[in-house]
Design goal:
The chain is an alpha/beta fold. The chain folds into two domains: 17-237 and 252-419, Alkaline Phosphatase, subunit A (3-Layer(aba) Sandwich); 450-537, Arylsulfatase, C-terminal domain, CATH 3.30.1120. It is built from 18 helices and 17 strands. Strands 1, 2, 3, 4, 5, 6, 7, 8, 11, 12 and 13 form an eleven-stranded mixed beta sheet that branches. Strands 14-15-16-17 form a four-stranded antiparallel beta sheet, with helices on one face. A hairpin with a 2-residue loop joins strand 5 (147-149) and strand 6. Helix 6 (166-184) packs parallel to helix 9 (258-288) and helix 8 (219-233) packs parallel to helix 12. It is globular.
Length: 537
C-alpha cells in the first residue's frame, strides 16, 4: 500500500488575486512560483470574502454560517452568530488525527470569541496536536498579541527577541515541525496560516529596500502590466476584455504624496516576499527530509485585497481603545505607536500601524472589482496552487472549473483515503458541502456544481457561466463569467428568468445553512445604539 501523503495547507492573509508573480505580479515570489511550475494553478477558485469565515470553511468543508462564524469572532447571540467554531462541525485536523496523522497549526487561528481562556473553539481542542500562533486576527509583526504556544501565552517569546518578526517565526516553527515528524515516519497535516500581508504595514528596511522604486510609476501602469501578464499566462482565457481602475480612486498622475504612496506598496510587497522566503524554507526542509514529493501542498488567500483605511472608524485614540493590544504596545525604538494612513506616518517600522489603501488594493485585485468583504470577484477570487509530485497531477496545467473553499476538505480526504465521519456516529455534524477537486487536478473532466456566498448582506451564487451577485443593500446583478469576470456589464434586466432561478436557489441555500439575514443583525445593533460598522466587525 502506498504511503499516505502529508498535507500542507498554506494560507496568506488579505492577499489579492494578482499579488504573486505566477498570477501576474511584479512582486518576486520565486518559491510560490516553483509550486505553480511543478503543480496546478486554478483560475476560478473562491474563498468567502473575509478571514474568519474563510478559515472556518477551509477547515470544515462547510459554509461558515454552519460553523457558527458568519461574520467574525464576536458573539452576537441571540440576534446573530456565536463567533466561535461550534461543535456541530468537525475539522480536517480532527478527521486526520483520528487516522493517525500528526497535526499542527502554525500561525493565525481567529476562530474563537474567547481568546483568554482555553475552550472548545481553540485549535488544541479541534484536532491540532501542536499549536504556535495567534488566536486573534490582525496584530503587530514585531510583538504579536495573543501569541500562544499550545494553550500557554507566548507573547514573551517575541518581546525577548530583538529581531523577532512573526512571518519568520511562523516559517521557522513549521520547519521544526517537519523535521520532527520526519524522524517518526508519521504522516502529518500542517496548516500554516500567515498573517502576511494583512495590515499593519511592517517590514524590515532591508526587505523594503529591495522594492525601492518599483512602484514609482503608480497603480495605473502597474495594473495594466499585471493585466498583460495575466493574459499571456492564460489564466483569464479572454474572460476580461478591459482592465478599469476603481472609479472612486484618482489616476496616478492626479495622486498626491506620490513618494509616500509608493512607500506603502513597497512595504506591502516586502511582506509578501518575506512570506515567500518562508515558504521556500519549508519546501527546502521537506526536500531535505525526503518528503516533498509525497506532500500535498495547497497555497491560497483567505479573501481578496483589503481596502480598509486605518484607523478603521474614528480617531487613532478611539481605535487604540477598541484594540487594547495596541494601547500596550511598546515599540523597541522607544517611540509611541503611530496609527493611521497619512503622509506624516511613513509605514514599515515597528512604531507605525498603517494600511496601503484602496488604490493599491485595486492593483492587488487586478483585474477585478471591489475588495475584501464583498462577494464580487475582487472579494472572493483567490490564487490556488496545488503541488503534489507523487499525486499524478497534471503539472503545469490551469484548472478553469470553478471551485470554492468547501471543496478543499473533500480533496484532502480523497487524496489521503480517509473517510468523512459517519453520520450514524456523529449525527450532529452535517455532510461536507463540497466535492473533491482531485479529478480536476489530474486533468480529468469535472461536473460544475453551484457555489454560494453571503457575508454581511453581500451575497452571490455561481451556476456554470452565470454569477448572480448583490452588494448590500443594492439589487442583484447578473454577469456572464465566461466573457466578463471583471463584472462590468450587468445582464440582470436582459435575463430576468435566470435571475429568478438563481435568487430562489440562493435563498433555499441560505435557509438551509443558517444565514442570519443581515437586516436582522443590523436591527439588533441599532436597537443597542450601535452602527453598521460595529455590526460588520
Amino acid at each position: 500500500m502506498a504511503k499516505p501523503p502529508n498535507v500542507l495547507l498554506i494560507l496568506a492573509d488579505d492577499m489579492g488575486f494578482s499579488d504573486i508573480a505566477c498570477y501576474g505580479s511584479e512582486i518576486e515570489t520565486p518559491h510560490i512560483d516553483r509550486l505553480a511550475a511543478g503543480g496546478v494553478r486554478f483560475s476560478q477558485f473562491y474563498n468567502t470574502a473575509r478571514c474568519s469565515p474563510s478559515r472556518a470553511s477551509l477547515l470544515t468543508g462547510l459554509h461558515p454560517h454552519q460553523t457558527g462564524i458568519g461574520i467574525l469572532t464576536k458573539d452576537d447571540r441571540p440576534h446573530g452568530y456565536p463567533g466561535s467554531l461550534n461543535e456541530r462541525c468537525t475539522t480536517v485536523a480532527e478527521i486526520l488525527s483520528a487516522a493517525r496523522y500528526a497535526t499542527a497549526l502554525v500561525g493565525k487561528w481567529h476562530l474563537a470569541s474567547d481568546i483568554r481562556q482555553p475552550n472548545a473553539a481553540w485549535p488544541t481542542r479541534r484536532g491540532f496536536d501542536h499549536f504556535y500562533g495567534t488566536l486573534a486576527g490582525s496584530c503587530s509583526y514585531f510583538q504579536p498579541a495573543s501569541l500562544t504556544r499550545g494553550e500557554r501565552n507566548a507573547e514573551g517569546e517575541a518581546t525577548a527577541q530583538a529581531d523577532y518578526y512573526y512571518t519568520d517565526a511562523i516559517s521557522q516553527e513549521a520547519c521544526t515541525f517537519v523535521r520532527e515528524k520526519s524522524q517518526h515516519q508519521q504522516p502529518f497535516f500542517m496548516y500554516v496560516a500567515y498573517t502576511a500581508p494583512h495590515w499593519p504595514l511592517q517590514a524590515s528596511e532591508e526587505d523594503i529596500a529591495k522594492n525601492r522604486g518599483r512602484y514609482d510609476e503608480g497603480w495605473d501602469v502597474l495594473r495594466e502590466r499585471r493585466m498583460q501578464r495575466l493574459r499571456e499566462s492564460g489564466l483569464l482565457a479572454g474572460a476580461v476584455p478591459a482592465c478599469e481602475r476603481d472609479p472612486e480612486e484618482p489616476a496616478w498622475d492626479d495622486a498626491q504624496d506620490k513618494a509616500w504612496e509608493a512607500r506603502r506598496m513597497e512595504v506591502y510587497a516586502a511582506q509578501v516576499q518575506r512570506m515567500d522566503q518562508g515558504i521556500g524554507d519549508i519546501l527546502a526542509t521537506l526536500e531535505e527530509t525526503g518528503q516533498l514529493d509525497n506532500t500535498l501542498v495547497f497555497f491560497m488567500s483567505d479573501n481578496g485585497a483589503c481596502a480598509e483605511v486605518l484607523p478603521l472608524d474614528g480617531s487613532a485614540q478611539a481605535f487604540k481603545k477598541r484594540r487594547p493590544d495596541l494601547d500596550r504596545l511598546k515599540p523597541r525604538n522607544g517611540r509611541d505607536l503611530q496609527v493611521g494612513n497619512e503622509p506624516a506616518i511613513v509605514p514599515g517600522p515597528e512604531d507605525t500601524y498603517a494600511s496601503y489603501g484602496r488604490a493599491w488594493a485595486n492593483l492587488s485585485n487586478t483585474p477585478f472589482r471591489l475588495y475584501k468583504r464583498w462577494t464580487h470577484e475582487g472579494g472572493i477570487a483567490t490564487p490556488l496552487i496545488v503541488h503534489w509530485p507523487a499525486g499524478g497531477l497534471a503539472n503545469g496545467a490551469i484548472v478553469r472549473s470553478p471551485f470554492q473553499l468547501t471543496d478543499v476538505l473533500p480533496t484532502i480526504l480523497e487524496a489521503t483515503q480517509v473517510a468523512y465521519p459517519d453520520k450514524d456516529k456523529v449525527p450532529h455534524v452535517p455532510p461536507a458541502e463540497g466535492c473533491s477537486m482531485l479529478s480536476a487536478l489530474r486533468g480529468q473532466p469535472t461536473n460544475d456544481h453551484t457555489l454560494y456566498w453571503e457575508h454581511t448582506g453581500n451575497a452571490a451564487v455561481r451556476r456554470g457561466r452565470w454569477k448572480l451577485v448583490r452588494e448590500y443593500p443594492k439589487p442583484w446583478e447578473l454577469y456572464d463569467m465566461d466573457t466578463d469576470r471583471a463584472e462590468t456589464s450587468d445582464l440582470a434586466a436582459r435575463h430576468p428568468h435566470i435571475v429568478g432561478e438563481l435568487v430562489a436557489q440562493w435563498q433555499a441555500w441560505a435557509d438551509r445553512v443558517g444565514v442570519v439575514p443581515w437586516d436582522e443583525v443590523l436591527a439588533a445593533y441599532r436597537a443597542a445604539g450601535k452602527n453598521e460598522a460595529e455590526a460588520a466587525g
